[in-house]
Design goal:
It comes from Sanguibacter antarcticus. With 198 residues, the protein is mainly alpha-helical. It has 8 helices and no strands. The longest helix has 38 residues, at 142-179.
């Protein structure tokens, strides 16, 4: 009895891994439709290199590795588009100012990490991959992943503390100013009537 055809093998690979691969891509691109393109490109590579795809549980991290390469090309294109968008925004003066959104401590700290550190932590926390699987995605030894994860976590904790201190400083300064002698924050609190002020 002959084994499954290439088409059947690919269909099984696709059905088993598409949702996870789409989630991986969605969390790394600006627009959901771009994520679908990334996944389609990754599966196209998988089809062309079907004999290179590992069997069993190793197939998923292998696909993540392919998607990561596709994303590298996406980011290059995105940077070019962003540069153009910045130039266009600079020429427009009629748009209302954008609302300032305060990022969370974790989000702000993640943004300060290197791209390599961010990717390691995302693969671990968002994708739920084990160290062995992360090693397959990044094409590095497992020991390297262990060391890099340890360092990335330490850097993240340090940056979170820094961000927290930075966010807390303005509030503390405002508190000091309001408590300083001679600083009147409220007429009634100062014991002054409108007549006395006049």
């Amino acid at each position: 009895m002959s084994g499954p055809t290439p088409e059947e093998r690919f269909a099984t690979l696709f059905d088993a891994n598409y949702p996870a691969l789409l989630g991986y891509a969605v969390r790394r691109v600006s627009h959901p439709e771009d994520a679908a393109d990334v996944v389609a490109e990754a599966f196209l590579v998988a089809w062309r290199r079907l004999d290179d795809v590992p069997g069993g549980a190793d197939a998923r991290p292998w696909l993540f590795g392919v998607a990561r390469n596709v994303l590298a090309n996406y980011y290059r294109s995105e940077r070019r588009r962003s540069t153009l968008a910045v130039r266009l925004r600079e020429t427009l003066t009629t748009d209302p100012p954008r609302a300032i959104v305060e990022p969370s401590t974790l989000g702000a700290a993640m943004a300060l990490l290197s791209e390599d550190d961010r990717e390691l932590l995302r693969l671990l926390a968002w994708e739920g991959l084990a160290r062995d699987e992360i090693a397959l995605v990044l094409r590095v030894p497992r020991a390297t992943v262990r060391v890099r994860l340890h360092r990335a976590r330490r850097r993240l904790v340090h940056l979170m503390a820094e961000v927290d201190d930075t966010n807390r400083a303005p509030a503390q300064e405002a508190l000091k100013r309001s408590a300083s002698p001679g600083h009147v924050t409220n007429r009634r609190a100062a014991g002054l009537t409108e007549a006395e002020e006049i």
